[in-house]
Amino acid sequence: MTKLGCRLMTLLALLLAWTTVVRADTFGAPSRHLPMTLVAESVVPRAGGTVTIAIDTQPEAGWHGYWLNPGDAGFPARLDWTLPAGAKVDGLRYPVPTTMLVAGLMNYVYKAPYAPLVTLSVPAGLPMGAKLPVRLKADYLVCTDSICVPEAQTLAMDLTVGDGTIAPATRAGFDAWRRAIPRPLGSAAAYRVKDASLRIAVPYPAGAVAADAYFFPTTTGAVDYAAPQTVTRDGDMLTIATKIAAGSKPAGPIEGVLRIGAAQGLMLSAAPGGLPGSTETNGRGVPATTLIAFLGAVLGGLILNIMPCVFPILSLKALSLAKGNTDARTARHDALAYTAGVILVLLALGGAILALRAGGSAVGWAFQLQDPRAIVVLLLLSVTIALNLAGLFEVPMPRFAGASGVSGSFATGALAAFVATPCTGPFMGAALGAALVLPWFAALAIFGGLGLGLALPFLAIGFVPALRRRLPRPGLWMETFRHILSVPMWLTAIALAWVLGRQAGVDAQSFALVMALVLGIVFWIAGTRQRRGAAAGLVMGLGIVAIMTVGVLALPKAVHGAPASAAGAEPFTETRLASLRAAKRPVFAYFTADWCLICKVNEKTAIEAAATRAAFAKHNVAVLVGDWTDGDPALGRFIQAHNRAGVPLYLYYPPGAAEPQVLAQVLTTGMLEALR
């Protein structure tokens, strides 16, 4: 028998069963193969608050109920609520179903006890002790493997306005029911149709368990329900291969639930487009996607040159070419060496990120700054550069800043790239995010583009004589300017000390400052020797090595404090996000780190602004903050699932939306006030 014939026979059986039930109800003998009970998490909910209600459903042995999408046969329950004036309920949230294949027809059913959940909003202003009668008329289909029977029940429950107390036993029961409700995936999936084949790519961490994975579509008419599903995993991507429904030409999103374990699932929405990791990405080939991301990385790297930790180094390198004794050939060699130092360091960092991710670690851009020891090294380097710019001592060849020569230029470029990693720009987020889903060679090209952008100003000065001629003439002002450039380096050192204190505690911060003081004493001694005409290279070399070693090995153990966040913000967890979204509240979630400069600027100028707080309060926007300073793996996987290589990441979830809006990396109060 064909599938169409099976469906016709099923519909005929349903019609006959409906007639039988109506006749039985007429004689006062209604069947109850799927008994239901309304259960409230609190029988004394607060006025103006909410309370979760479960429809506790206990299928009779051998019988089953249907999911919101029943599959090839059956129909979902139809619910008609009667509520007190001003009260309302949100949409029904179903637990993860199971599959049942009968005569070639796939059904999505429940054979074991289950409990769909709804949230009841209690009207504000009700007095204590006010009664809240809740009634529900449910029409549904209940079946065995061979027969289906429509049933109807009227359920009743009376609540009383009170203090919202929840009994411990009731709370435990609801916690178990909630665990069976699918959670939002929180990242965008994609699908591609080729002939009759359908492939859905779902961002899913490589280290996360996905047992007995299966995709239950809620979008009807797009997927062949009875077709076998093949699930494969490649790194942080899970792919479902199946067939489209006969005659279907899906063009919009395909939504559904991905089962990842027993009674565990994720709600997802897949948009049409190329699959990450395949020969297409968002409808573009890998070469085109790589080129776009490469250009974005170049622009992002170019912007890094104005950061306080990079600008002084670039300025001195540029001024070294303005002294009038550098020929065109030397200038080009210096520019190429500087560029090589920048690009090689960023390729090394990019390769380390890709290697660690391939091993299952949730690392991203500036991952090394999640280790306090790396912060100490950067802090001491910043102090070294600041003291050198201030004139306390001179660095022997090869110099780190202001020196000609290939070795000095290469070292300067490497240093500039290393100290630039805490920063990011408006074009870098998407570019580095693309590196997470592109092949490794394309990803390395993007990191190379970032290095090219960072080196581009000095590269242009070295190769364009007209630009060198526009540089100021050498003179005594250059020494004064050099001293002025020590100020941003001191600001960088202060910022790194603050980050270290936030990340590892005041003991570690004080220890690092003592090391910086010792370093200053060593350089003072070296500078004194230099001014007498004596050599000081050995003194500085041994001193730097000793102090850096002690600073890294003897750093006090980190003591983590609570992350700073905007007033009214809650710590981000996927569970809390799912709860807020289920309650239909708009949610602004932002992900930050103490070592991320642009994150802190956005927080002070936009997120924590009075206008933003007032707008969020007016529209009841919940704020969640994820602090990634210490490299929390759970946050790292969530960030990566949104195709970002690191922070900042700003997400806005409108009420009822399937996917969040990914906001720009540079925020304004107007942008946040406009969120609804």
Features:
elongated, Immunoglobulin-like, disordered N terminus, alpha+beta, 41% helix, 18 helices, five-stranded mixed β-sheet, 676 residues, eight-stranded mixed β-sheet
Could you give the topology of this structure?
Elements: H1 3-26, E1 36-40, E2 50-57, E3 65-71, E4 78-82, E5 88-89, E6 98-102, E7 105-110, E8 117-121, E9 131-143, E10 148-160, H2 168-179, E11 183-184, E12 189-194, E13 197-203, E14 214-217, E15 230-234, E16 237-243, E17 254-261, E18 264-272, E19 280-281, E20 284-285, H3 286-304, H4 311-320, H5 328-358, H6 372-389, H7 406-419, H8 428-434, H9 440-463, H10 465-469, H11 477-504, H12 506-531, H13 537-553, E21 570-571, H14 574-582, E22 587-592, H15 597-607, H16 610-618, E23 622-627, H17 633-641, E24 649-653, E25 661-662, H18 669-673
Parallel strand pairs: 11-18, 12-18, 21-23, 22-23
Antiparallel strand pairs: 1-2, 2-8, 3-7, 4-9, 5-8, 6-7, 9-10, 12-13, 13-16, 14-17, 15-16, 17-18, 19-20, 22-24, 24-25
Helix pairs in contact: 3-8, 3-9, 4-11, 5-7, 5-9, 6-11, 6-12, 6-13, 8-9, 11-12, 12-13
Q: Domains counted in the coordinates: how many? A: 4
Stretches where pLDDT falls below 50 for ≥5 residues? 1-6, 8-29, 277-284, 397-404, 560-564
* Class from helix and strand fractions: alpha+beta
Number of strands: 25
How confident is the prediction overall: mean pLDDT?
A: 80
In whole angstroms, the N-to-C terminal distance is 53 Å
Number of helices: 18
Tell me the strand percentage band: 15-25%
Sheet having the most strands: 8 strands, mixed
Tell the overall outline. Answer: elongated
How large is the radius of gyration?
Answer: 32 Å
Helix residue percentage = 40-55%
